[in-house]
Design brief:
Strand content: 5-15%
Organism: Artemisia annua (Sweet wormwood)
Helix content: 25-40%
Number of domains: 2
Distance between the termini: 72 Å
Order of helices and strands: HHHEHEHEEHEHEHEHEHEHEHEHEEE
GO biological process, one term: SCF-dependent proteasomal ubiquitin-dependent protein catabolic process
Largest sheet: 14 strands, mixed
Protein name: Leucine-rich repeat, cysteine-containing subtype
CATH architecture of the largest domain: Alpha-Beta Horseshoe
CATH superfamily of the largest domain: Ribonuclease Inhibitor
Pfam family, one: DUF7885
Number of helices: 13
Length: about 350
Amino acid sequence: MERLGDDELICIFDKIDNHEDRKSFYQVSKNWLKVACIRLRELDISFPGILDDILPASPYIVKFTCLKPLSNTYLNLLAHSCPKLQYLNLEQDLDPEKEDCEAGHGVEHDDEVDLTERLLVRDVRFDSIVRSCKNLTYLDLGGCLSVTDESLKSLGASKSITKLILTGCMITDLGLEYLANGDLKNCLESLHLDECDRVSDVGFSHLKQMVILYHLVLSNCGVLNTDSGTLAISQIPNINTLHLLSSTNVTDISLSNIASTCKKLKFIYLLGCEAITGEGLRCFAHHPTLHCIKLYSCDNISWEDVELVVSTCPSLTIVGLSRRLKTPMPETGREAFNFGDKWCWIDWD
């Protein structure tokens, strides 16, 4: 009896609908595994040792995840075998002992890279990843404590990144200056700087050069932020979503700056900004685009302040409030309230 060829195996595989049966199919032999991989679009793997067999047979993979350290050899194999790759998730630490472990060299087709909590990332390795991912649009470096200002220098030259997450990174004002002075300012749409407590108002002042930026997260950024910092932030021309959670130095003056300057603002999150009072909230009265404002743990606000803002903002339909709101206040069991000719959803903390 003649051996089955690839065409026959593909026909057989295409007729198998059950997922477990398909797994049994490609466990039979390497040839059968090769056939199964032709249809593969996503790969989540914990044993890099079998990539020599899988990757060359998987030209249509678009999403790749590996939670074990990958050597440069495997990353090169991934780049050459999977030209349609769009999402690359390599969350675990690279092996610092191996000389061939400069992550990212040769990976030229990726759209997204997630390096969350990869604590051993070094500047040189980070630069290699950025240089190799020619179509990189999404980069998550959250928790990478070794990402520094020098790391951001190469990012500033990017012409493709649209979302950048730097949560908890050890960056300073100089790093934000690098980002804002390069080509990145013309493509970056979303920036997460939460828990970057080494950045001051001087660093935030550079962000107004980012003309495409519309989503900014500055929560838990320490005590360096003052009204001058929020004034600089409010001058970002297209900002429409702003997170300032637990920013203790955000005041009524800060809200006045934001409300009067950010005419495209739709969402603002002020949870835990305890210095805010009703005077600051009233600055948003008649705002043309505001859709949602969250004020949990902001206790120095009265129901009259809420009524004034909601009734005069044509797009405002969601308000988050503290249950310790100053009196007078309605029954907190209610969630939807009528304000003249409009309804607004009240979300109580």
